[in-house]
Write a structure and sequence with these properties.
Layout lengths: L9 E3 L2 H7 L6 E7 L12 H11 L4 E8 L4 H9 L8 E5 L2 H10 L4 E4 L1 E3 L58 E5 L5 E3 L1 H8 L23 H13 L20 E3 L5 E5 L9 E2 L6 E2 L4 E4 L8 E2 L4 E9 L8 E8 L19 H10 L12 H4 L8 E5 L9 H8 L1 H15 L4 E6 L3 H10 L5 E6 L8 H9 L14 E5 H13 L5 E8 L6 E6 L4 H8 L9 E5 L6 E2 L13 E6 L16 H5 L6 H9 L19 H5 L6 H9 L2
Parallel strand pairs: 2-3, 2-4, 4-5, 9-22, 17-18, 17-20, 18-19, 21-25
Antiparallel strand pairs: 1-6, 7-8, 10-16, 11-13, 12-15, 13-14, 15-16, 21-22, 23-24, 23-25
Helix pairs in contact: 7-10, 9-11, 10-13, 16-18
Length: 663
């Protein structure tokens, strides 16, 4: 005996009822929701074929049929429906739970909306004023009453929209179009039945029968405010995103300090986007701090410099913290003399040309320090005109405080670095964007600035606010095209730490030989924001800062933050230019499994800031058809981890996406 419970939300109305609904109408376009809360094994939806058969039996023809995932997601579904060719369709039939039907009715006000499905009740709360789809991104709700009347009431639900949930018409208690019943917040609702009568169409004047149900309602004083808060948060600043525990308190108020100099440094020849460097030193050579030790003739590359003085003891393959294989690295034994390579002081900023500035930035090995490590001299020479520079001070990753401390302690250098970039780009506008959990840093930057080309923006804290596309959309209302770059919409985005490094390179002739690394997390005995020399072994940081318990199987050590950071497998790998943090986090009690079945709850779609459908990537991976993911714009995924963070089935979605991108 099959004891599985069907937790999907709706079922097609009986054939006899559907035949009655279409008896006097033609030109019907069907919008069918692909069911949620079911084991997600395929994209099959038989609604269109079933309805085509029913229509054929009644000598009717469907104008068209569109199948959409999560019709209740008004943000995404409205875009898809607006692209449909509905000009010839006088009637639109919706196969969905009540939320989807009401949403379509509100979106297509000039169409006759027909409810072709009934909701499936769960338990005894059949008149609950909350949706069973978690938090819908629109104001519509569905009580799963088991018999949908929306086709009779022109998309206005008598269960939800009437304060008294009356099914047989108005009660006579309405005044000036408002119900006599006051809600918990003291306001009143429009009389649903008055609105129904106003919008009745000729086909909606038939009598209809109802089922006897339990009309008791749960207490909503707690659930309603929570629902509204969550709906607001989902749309705040940008679509999607999440609010993970920040855990920034551990290092937020700790000034930047120097990490102890290591006995040796391991400098991989590949630690930036682009062509790896070739060594320009050999084993046995003596090198000094700041001396160039690796370079390439390629345009998209960044030279490497020694972070210590000492002797090159080997040039060999060593573990890399990001690349899952050994990489040719230059190993230097520190002599602790800190002898500085001869530095030629640059001219003043006013006397340096754009080309000279770009040459300095390249020669000093400056790359993006937010994690991407793209060579700065390439980014600052865009092939298209730009008009706005955005300085990213959001640092939305949990635990990390590198940029925050730099904003507090190197404020002057940041402002000066921005001026350098404005001169290179020859533009008149820069915006420094900082989340409101770092308001003191923003105020300090404002106080330091005297340049009217520089503006400031305080943004509500939300992850992943610091993603380029999110910032550009929020600050400039410009949409970076799929597969495009910020420069395609006239913008360049640069990280706070990168701007500071550019200032150091131009003003003080200091190459990128060290960076600020935030060390934090579980069992961290010496948390802090450390100035660490590039090439320092991660093992040194763990031994210095963490208790031995952090090395056991109950914990993960990540390079970067808990959301986008990379799990560190080999602690013999070094700090590189893109290392923002070393964070220890406790493993989830429920282990992630790429073979676990998706239940199609839709949460990953609700939180994806790129407006993608991550569950499709899981399906394609489990079906061994990863190439199909291209149809769902997998290349647009920024691997922020929101989908994986909220996944009910604990599926490692980001890992699947990374693998499928290579297919």
């Amino acid at each position: 005996m099959d004891t599985k419970v069907d937790y999907t939300k709706f079922k097609l109305k009986p054939e006899s009822e559907l035949s009655s609904l279409i008896s006097d109408i033609d030109n019907v376009f069907v919008i069918a929701c692909n069911k949620c809360y079911k084991e997600f094994t395929d994209n099959k939806n038989e609604a269109c074929s079933e309805l085509a058969n029913i229509f054929a039996k009644n000598n009717k023809k469907i104008t068209g049929c569109a199948e959409l995932d999560f019709l209740c997601n008004s943000h995404l579904s409205s875009k898809k429906i607006n692209k449909l060719n509905l000009s010839e369709a006088k009637n639109v039939a919706v196969v969905s739970c009540g939320i989807g039907i009401q949403f379509v009715a509100g979106l297509l006000e000039n169409k006759n909306i027909l409810a072709f499905a009934d909701s499936i009740p769960h338990g005894n709360n059949t008149t609950a004023l909350t949706s069973f789809h978690g938090i819908s991104l629109n104001n519509k709700k569905c009580a799963a009453c088991a018999q949908c009347y929306l086709n009779l009431t022109d998309g206005i639900c008598p269960i939800i929209d009437c304060s008294k949930s009356l099914l047989n018409g108005s009660c006579g208690g309405a005044k000036n179009g408002k119900c006599e019943v006051k809600l918990a917040d003291g306001t009143t609702k429009d009389c649903a039945w008055e609105n129904i009568y106003k919008s009745f169409k000729s086909t909606n004047n038939n009598d209809f029968t109802v089922q006897i149900r339990n009309y008791s309602k749960p207490e909503l004083t707690l659930t309603n405010p929570l629902t509204e808060i969550n709906k607001t948060n989902r749309q705040q600043n940008f679509y999607g995103g999440i609010y993970p525990d920040e855990n920034k308190h551990q290092t937020k108020n700790m000034p930047i300090t120097n990490f102890p100099d290591p006995e040796l440094v391991v400098i991989p020849l590949s630690q930036h986007t682009g062509t790896p460097c070739e060594p320009i030193v050999k084993v046995g050579d003596k090198v000094k701090v700041g001396q160039k030790i690796g370079d390439s003739k390629s345009y998209i590359t960044a030279p490497l410099h020694s972070s210590v003085s000492g002797e090159v003891i080997s040039i060999e393959e060593r573990p890399h913290p990001l690349i899952e294989k050994n990489i040719i690295s230059i190993v230097i034994k520190n002599d602790f003399k800190n002898e500085i390579y001869s530095i030629i002081q640059n001219k003043t900023l006013d006397n340096l040309s754009k080309e000279e500035l770009l040459d300095i930035i390249r020669e000093k090995g400056i790359v993006g320090l937010g994690g991407a490590a793209f060579p700065a001299h390439v980014k600052l020479k865009p092939p298209k005109p730009v008009d706005t520079l955005i300085i990213n001070g959001c640092e939305c990753e949990a635990h990390l405080n590198c940029d925050y401390r730099i904003m507090l302690e190197n404020t002057k250098e940041i402002i000066n670095g921005i001026k350098i970039i404005l001169k290179i780009l020859n533009i008149q506008k820069a915006i420094i964007a900082v989340e409101d959990n770092k308001s003191d840093a923003l105020e300090k930057l404002k106080a330091e600035n005297t340049d009217n080309r520089i503006e400031f923006a305080s943004l509500k804290t939300k992850y992943p606010q610091g993603a380029e596309r999110m910032l550009i959309k929020k600050l400039l209302n410009r949409e970076v095209p799929v597969g495009g770059l910020p420069l395609d919409v006239g913008t360049i985005v640069s990280n706070i730490s990168t701007v500071t490094a550019i200032n150091d390179a131009v003003i003080s002739a200091i190459p990128l030989i060290e960076r600020i690394v935030c060390v934090s997390g579980e069992n961290c005995q010496k948390p802090g924001n450390y100035r660490v020399k590039i090439g320092t072994l991660i093992k040194n940081i763990i031994d210095h800062c963490f208790s031995p318990e952090s090395k056991n199987n109950n914990y993960l050590i990540k390079m970067g933050g808990p959301m986008m950071g990379r799990d560190l497998i080999n602690f013999e790998s070094p700090v590189i230019k893109g290392t923002t943090g070393i964070v220890a986090i406790k493993k989830n009690e429920a282990e992630f499994d790429k073979n676990r079945k998706c239940i199609k709850c839709g949460r990953c779609v609700d939180v994806c800031p790129m407006e993608l459908y991550p569950l499709q990537y899981v399906l394609n991976s489990q079906s061994n058809t990863p190439a199909e993911s291209k149809k769902y714009d997998i290349k647009s995924c920024i691997e922020c981890g929101c989908c994986e963070y909220i996944c009910s089935s604990k599926i490692p979605i980001v890992k699947i996406i990374k693998q499928d991108k290579l297919s």
